[in-house]
Structures are given as C-alpha cells and as structure tokens.
Amino acid sequence: MRPIAQVQTELRVEGVGQLAVGVGGLVAALAIGVPTARAVVPFAVAALVLAGVQFAIMTRWLRGEAASAGPPSADAEVELAAHTVRRSLIKLVLFLGVLVLMVPLGLSGVFGGVVAGIGAVDLGTSLWLDRQEAARGVTVYREVGASPFSGGRRTIYTRPTSASTLDT
C-alpha cells in the first residue's frame, strides 16, 4: 500500500498557494500595462469557470468518498506533514513556472484566474472537511500519488481523530 497523507494539509497548502499564484498573475498583467478591465474581467471569468468545474468534479467526488471511506490497512504509513507540504509546494512551482511564461504573452491574468479559481475551491473544501472531520470524529486521508503531479482522485480513508493525533 502507498503511504497516506492528510487531505486537509494538501488542500490548505495548495489552496493558499494557488490563490497567491493566481493573484500574482493578475498583478503581473497589470504591472506590464494590460488595461485594468482587460486584466480583471478575464481573471474573474476564468476564476469563476474553473471554480465551477473544480467544485462539480473534484469536490463532489471527495465529499462522496469521504462520507463512505473506511479505515486504511493497519500497516498504512502516514506521510509526515512536512513531506505533504513539500509535495504540495512542488505542484505550486509548476504553476508559478507556467505563470512566468504567460506574462510576456499578456495572458498571466487569465492563467491567474484559472489557478485562483482552483485554489478558492480547495480552501472551501478544506473548510467543509474541517466540519465533517469534527462532526464524525475522524481524520480524512488519501493515498500519496506516484508523483507530486498525481491527480486528486486517489483512494480515500478515514481514521479516528484520536489515532490521527498520534501520527503528528
């Protein structure tokens, strides 16, 4: 079995980072002289569209899986929070690299909106997951992907919160 990581850690780090990269894209567009309306409107549209897609696909899937997830095998290794943060930051470096390539093309505002929309939904999902974990007395985990760029649809598990605090 692959190691498992707390979903909350992934969602929070990636959500905050994606929002920061996204807003950075908007700021970069304005800094290179893109007129305000031509920067802000595409940013907002891209953010809303991607937030809708992210919510419809990933958040619904995660909510369904988290509600019915069972415990991992007894020998499941829990990834250290620091490793989860590092793995999540690697994804953000990719977004940042693409953003840098978009600036000279005048597309950093649009790309920033895409990334910010995804980040906003990740943070919203994190808040929902906080409430669910507290209400159920569990911590939600998912398998660590084969690479830092693995998609979010990985096997979900839950463990009693009391067992989770022993892992941190």
Observed structural traits:
168 residues, mainly alpha, 3-stranded antiparallel beta sheet, 5 helices, 8% strand, elongated
What does the model show?
- The chain has helices spanning 7-31, 36-68, 81-102, 108-136, 161-167; strands at residues 4-6, 138-143, 156-160.
- The protein has one domain (4-167).
- It has a three-stranded antiparallel β-sheet.
- By secondary structure, it is mainly α.
Q: In terms of structural class, how would the helical and strand content be classed? A: mainly alpha
The secondary-structure element order is EHHHHEEH
Number of strands: 3
C-alpha Rg (nearest Å): 17 Å
Helical content stands at 55-70%
- Rounded to the nearest angstrom, the distance between the terminal CA atoms is 20 Å
The number of distinct helices, counting runs of at least 4 residues, comes to 5
As residue ranges, the low-confidence spans are none
Mean pLDDT: 89
Largest sheet, in brief, is: 3 strands, antiparallel
The oligomeric status of these chains comes to single chain
How much β-strand is present in the residues?
5-15%
Strand order of the biggest β-sheet:
1-2-3
> What is the general shape?
elongated
**Tally of structural domains:** 1
Topology at a glance:
Blueprint lengths: L3 E3 H25 L4 H33 L12 H22 L5 H29 L1 E6 L12 E5 H7 L1
Antiparallel strand pairs: 1-2, 2-3
Helix pairs in contact: 1-3, 1-4, 2-4, 3-4
Summarize the structure.
This protein has one domain (4-167).
